[in-house]
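Quarterly update from the structural biology core.
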Amino acid sequence: MSLHPPPFPAAGAAPDAVAFQRDELSVILSLYGRMVAAGEWRDYGISTLRDRAVFSVFRRTAEHPLYRIEKQPRLRARQGMYSVTGMDGQILKRGHDLRQVLRVLERKLIRPVGD
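Predicted structure, tokenized:
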């Protein structure tokens, strides 16, 4: 008789991949919708990796992402597990509060009104 591993991970076991929770996705998709309405963004992709979850934003589908919104739980006790990275790989903002971190992108919606 052979023993097979359980089909689901045991309680308290580490998950196979990091993912965004429903409330986190709600905040991100709210910003995404406003940016699409403003004509700034056109597509997105979500990646769930072993150590991080990534929400990539594109102007066009075939391009490299304009921004990456990342969740890295291992940085929770340090700089914060949320970060926004630009196209060039530079971290634009990092912190513990997702809404606060996303404000760096919301500033792109505010434009001066010309006379």
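The chain has one domain: 22-106.
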